[in-house]
Amino acid sequence: MSAKPLAEGQPARIRGRTAVALAVVVSFWGLILVDEMVVNISLAQIAEALQLSQTELGWVVNAYLLPFGGLLLLGGRIGDILGKRRVFIAGMALYTVGCLSRAVAPDAWPLIAARAVQGTGAALATPCVLALILNTFSEGPLRRRAIGVYTIAGGTGAAIGLLVAGALGATGSWQLQMLLAGVIGLALLVVTPAVVAETPRQSGRFDVPGALLSTVGLVSLVYALANSTGDGWRTAPVIACYATGVVAFALFVLVTKRTREPLLDLGLFTDRTRVGAYLVLLLMPGTQIGIFFFLSQYLQMFLGYTAMAVALAFLLVSVGMVGAAGLAARLEPRLGARTVVVLGALMLLGSNAWLMRMQAGDSFWTAVLPPLLFVGAGLAFTIIPATIRATTGVDDEGSGSASSVVNAVQNIGSSLSLAIIVAVAATAGAAAAANPPSDLPAEALDGFVFGESMTAGFATGGVFAVAAILAALLIRSRRSTDTHVAAPRQEEVRTNV
Hints:
Layout: H1 16-50, H2 54-70, H3 72-82, H4 84-103, H5 108-136, H6 141-169, H7 174-195, H8 208-226, H9 236-257, H10 272-301, H11 307-335, H12 337-356, H13 364-367, H14 369-391, H15 399-434, H16 445-472, H17 479-483, H18 490-496
Helix pairs in contact: 1-5, 1-6, 1-7, 2-5, 2-8, 3-4, 3-5, 3-15, 4-5, 4-7, 5-6, 5-15, 6-11, 6-14, 8-9, 8-15, 10-11, 10-12, 10-14, 10-15, 10-16, 11-12, 11-14, 12-14, 12-16, 15-16
Domain Major facilitator superfamily (MFS) profile: 21-479
Pfam families: MFS_1
Protein name: MFS transporter
């Protein structure tokens, strides 16, 4: 990508080398999400092949999640200071090394170490993906279209990952499944220097205390959320991590206010529109995680679908998202981001409400197909304008930090919403098992319990959608104001404080 923003007056079409560069950077973002799905599906096979204990298997997941979630803010700041392309390539290289190393890991701890390297690389590269887009395209139709492409790459990653996992799973080789992302990463590493231009480096120094506090806070919070499913949230380590996270973030804010060149400009949070956009992005995962979580089980348990058939069914979400992305980008400047986000959240609310009515044995075509299409369209209508508003008014020098906040709130939102939905569903399932209908046959009890859990999960997804509508009300409806929201410099924030 060229570091010089394209002119506002150009038509909303991305051509030539810029289009190739955009495809490369969003491909890596999509690769991260595809690989995450492949790893999750391959865990059972890996555990059997390497004779992993449940503790070791848990660390295969956490060794990636903790550095990925914990280092996002630092990764964005490093990109601002050292150059976003340079840090993007370094992160991509680390990620690729981790992917290749895990494929040849002989036992648990080399595999866990490789996953930690992979997570560190993802934390460095991910904020630079969106930051490179912001540095390349000035605010206007081209940036909206580029953010739409970025959103589609992220939104379709899970569905494509299911297909890839299903296809590779047939080979019976977990090493081959782990190797694929490394091979693609190598290809992207070769292409990136030729098509992606470097951005100007920002003079400054690293905020070491802020980096340590933000990393401790994010790592503690991500670990606590990842282990809060079921009764896990009641355990002493999880409670301690929640407390550590709160204290670390409180100290981070205090240190940031008194630091000349902080890790994160707190001015990003002084604008109502941007805060509303952050909240929408935080809540969005909760509107659809339960749909994927429960429908994958429903389609296999009650309709007899294979894993590959489930993956194909979930591609409908991608179809809905791709179909709606262009429309969402065009409507955002005309109707205002608030209106478009509310329309999208209403689609997601309707999808969850539709699925709540589903009964065991209902047809896929009438019970599942329509809400899946609306999920994809709803995600496009919410995520694209929210991302646009979250990054509007951010100058090139702070685009890495601003992008890392977008990634961080989405990452935390995914962990938080999954923990809440699983906890609510488990409570509903326990209540159903304890008080089943008196005339329910014994062989139907498991299906009844699952159905009650699933309904509770969809209801919780609807609550997240309602919360997103309320958060969207913070976004200013006046389009002229929205277009020129600027993040105050840190000096201004300190003066006001």
